[in-house]
Amino acid sequence: MKQISRFSHFGELSDKDYFRIALSVDCVIFGFEDGELKVLVINCNIKEYRGKLSLLGDLVRPDEDLDSASYRILRERTGLGDVYLEQVQTFGAVDRHPAGRVITTTYFSLVNVRDVQLTLAENDLHWHPVNDIHDMAFDHLTILHACHERLREKVDDHPVVFNLLPKKFSLRELQCVYEAILNTRLDRRNFRKKFFMMDWLVDLDELEQDVPHRPGKLYRFNAAKFTRKPKALAR
Amino acid sequence: MKQISRFSHFGELSDKDYFRIALSVDCVIFGFEDGELKVLVINCNIKEYRGKLSLLGDLVRPDEDLDSASYRILRERTGLGDVYLEQVQTFGAVDRHPAGRVITTTYFSLVNVRDVQLTLAENDLHWHPVNDIHDMAFDHLTILHACHERLREKVDDHPVVFNLLPKKFSLRELQCVYEAILNTRLDRRNFRKKFFMMDWLVDLDELEQDVPHRPGKLYRFNAAKFTRKPKALAR
């Protein structure tokens, strides 16, 4: 390790006092099931928080970048490789982890629950409704809320929600996803009008099958049509 | 240090292989001067990057939270305490720092350059036009771009720009700030119309003094009127 005293204004501390942090990555993996926004969690098995829900995370390896670590966790826990993943925030309170100073960088991901194989049954890995979670291990409830808030902001002008849906979906399903994320009821006509204005959908000329209501038309997301909305002030 | 083997799936690594990271904080401090968006930089004095521009940063102390570290850096470098500060992204490429594994969490801040005392003259601390920066030490150019992009997204629906201006300002100055951040010319009439719709301004019933053009009316920001814009889909 080379000298890094050029960094610090604190003469009383040496390099080795600084190079003592571990870094973890925690993933908030959102899914949509039974009309609810859900998150993939396990039961925490460390003494201090035993029995509480915990997000999926792991320490970052010495030779691993942050994004690689979060993709690895997702792959190990869901079997999925090619998924939406976005860094949200890093949490570094001095006493946030009982094992020492562990800083955690958090990511959120959106997956279609039907694509996920929950083969890794350890620690009761399961989908849990976001609205039913009021307590978690560590600072994970704060992390969950921060990622949910980022998702809420994101859906307004980014077609990120399509990652939660199957390739073909009805407008009813699409609206349900938005309502679950925003935790509010939306007006059906306004929702459809605004959605068609955004021009993100392709009408597949097919109808839903085996549904307990009048079958709706099926659509797919048209990624080619997505361009970032011009900013209001620049329009 | 307690056992943390519960974390890791890698039997070949021990705790001490993980607790070897240092964490730094880098601040992208934006200011507005002479019609340009500027950033506060120093000349890097470490061997590998000598003479290149560098952001203001420092290692996070063992007993320091992330936000506290960034406020400390701001205070030390600008003399300012009560400033806008927002965490943007954490950069953790394995080889990003020559001194060892140093992860950096980045923040952006917006200050009024007239409030800043650049008393700390070491390393040629100075305001540099963002558009003139094409090379920096470490990954700091990437960090600068990420923070500028976050700022661009933010100004669309958040009154964050007022932090760059004096308490009293004209609409001409306000438009200049937006143009500098967005790096584009805006239509004067549309800008004013949209701004008044947002209802963020208080007319002070005063005129600019000593300006080389027809004096404009002066305004102040009305923080009380700021409420988060309802999301388009929920409207």
UniProtKB/TrEMBL annotation, chains A, B:
Q: Name one Pfam family in it.
A: NUDIX
Q: Where is the NrtR DNA-binding winged helix domain?
A: 161-221
What InterPro entries does the annotation carry?
NUDIX_hydrolase-like_dom_sf, NUDIX_hydrolase_dom, WH-like_DNA-bd_sf, WH_DNA-bd_sf, WHD_NrtR
Molecular function, one GO term: hydrolase activity
What is the name of this protein? Answer: Putative hydrolase
Q: Which UniProt keywords apply?
A: Hydrolase
The Nudix hydrolase domain, residue ranges: 23-144
Organism in which the protein naturally occurs: Flavihumibacter petaseus NBRC 106054
Origin: domain of life: Bacteria
In its keyword annotation, does this UniProt entry include Hydrolase? yes
